[in-house]
Specification:
globular; nine-stranded antiparallel sheet; Beta-galactosidase, Chain A, domain 5; about 350 residues; mainly beta; five-stranded antiparallel sheet
Length: about 350
């Protein structure tokens, strides 16, 4: 993918996957910022942003066409994950006394919506629009049938990508169901503000408004506890280099950062929750969300496979900032609920505000 921003509101073919299914790529631009989105998985393919000298780079990992995303070894680059992102223990849950069995695609557990019909692997219907302020927007819709990937209820899901005039990529989620079900949606972009191909993200500084986290067992399933970050490598209340304390986590099941941080007590209100900064380029990414949690993942499982322009995607060459409800919430009554009932609507908003420091 070229690093130079293309014109706004373009649409072009994005290749064919191994099943013969064609994909389309849309480009949105507003000011200095441009993004690419494909209909496969309602996936964010590229984000192009200038540094303090005005040099534009793509700051998200991914592939040059849909074939990379359709490979069995895909690691969820940029996709919409669901119906339920993150993990569900043992791939089972109960609602109103009825048991449901899901795909076990992460050891004995369920991860990011499951198998062949998880949200990252299906084709979404995409419409290019402009919001009431004239900002370019892509509206992505998908209807998940009752029983798909084991989940109950027919779910109508919508994801809208908008490039706002203040330099933000805004992602709005909505979902409705005709039977009680579970919903927890996020975007799984891998960020490196130095640009695609940069060998590490550990030189970035991260600040998060999170005083607590949810500890996990050796399968990365929450224990149910909610503990303070004080004295742990997860304390990012002050801006800290991602590489400063990661060595303390190398011998754990996570292999580094792969933890859900608790974002205070104001879930449901859009508020600033953190900032990622790359001092050499000056690029910064401010995160705003309505969600109660954020999964911090330091790309520990990337294996150097080629991504865009054949450049390697190495372990810890990016960081994911996945706004979400907590993992395995269905098994922990005191966690924010991921249950959705008929007549109610799931809604969520996250904004990634890109800019520079001087």
């Amino acid at each position: 993918m070229p690093d130079t921003p293309p014109p706004a509101m373009l649409q072009r073919p994005f290749g064919v996957d191994r099943t013969g299914r064609a994909a389309t790529l849309w480009t949105l631009q507003n000011g200095d910022l441009s993004v690419d989105v494909t209909d496969r998985g309602a996936t964010l393919v590229a984000v192009r942003a200038p540094d303090r000298e005005g040099r534009v780079a793509d700051v998200t990992l991914g592939f040059d066409d849909v074939a990379g995303y359709a490979d069995n070894a895909d690691v969820y680059f940029g996709c919409t994950t669901g119906r339920v992102c993150n993990r569900i223990a043992a791939g089972t849950f109960s609602l109103d006394g009825r048991a449901f069995r899901l795909a076990r695609n992460n050891g004995r557990n369920h991860l990011h919506g499951g198998g062949d019909r998880s949200f990252d692997k299906v084709s979404w219907h995409v419409a290019a629009q402009r919001d009431p302020d004239g900002a370019p927007r892509l509206r992505c819709r998908y209807t998940s049938a009752d029983g798909e990937e084991g989940y109950p209820g027919t779910l109508h899901a919508e994801v809208c990508y908008t490039l706002t005039a203040d330099g933000a990529l805004q992602i709005d989620y909505a979902a409705r169901t005709d039977a009680p079900t579970l919903v927890n949606l996020t975007n799984h972009s891998y960020w490196n503000l130095a640009g695609v191909g940069a060998p590490t993200v550990l030189d970035h500084e991260l600040q998060l408004d999170a005083a607590r986290y949810t500890p996990t067992d050796d399968e990365l399933i929450p224990t149910g506890a909610i503990e303070p970050v004080d004295g742990t490598p997860l304390d990012f209340r002050r801006a800290t280099r991602l590489g400063a304390r990661i060595a303390a986590l190398e011998g754990t099941a996570a292999r580094g950062y792969d933890h859900n941080l608790v974002l205070g007590d104001e879930a449901g209100r859009l508020r600033r929750v953190g900032e990622l900064h790359h001092p050499p380029s000056g690029r910064r990414l401010i995160v705003e969300t309505t969600e109660p949690g954020l999964q911090l993942y330091s790309a520990n499982w990337l294996d150097g496979r080629p991504g865009k322009r054949g450049l390697p995607c190495a372990a810890r060459s990016a960081v994911c900032l996945e706004t979400q409800h907590f993992p395995d919430s269905v098994h922990h009554a005191h966690f924010p609920t991921t249950r959705l009932d008929p007549g109610a609507e799931f809604t969520s908003t996250t904004r990634y505000l890109l800019g520079v420091t001087r």
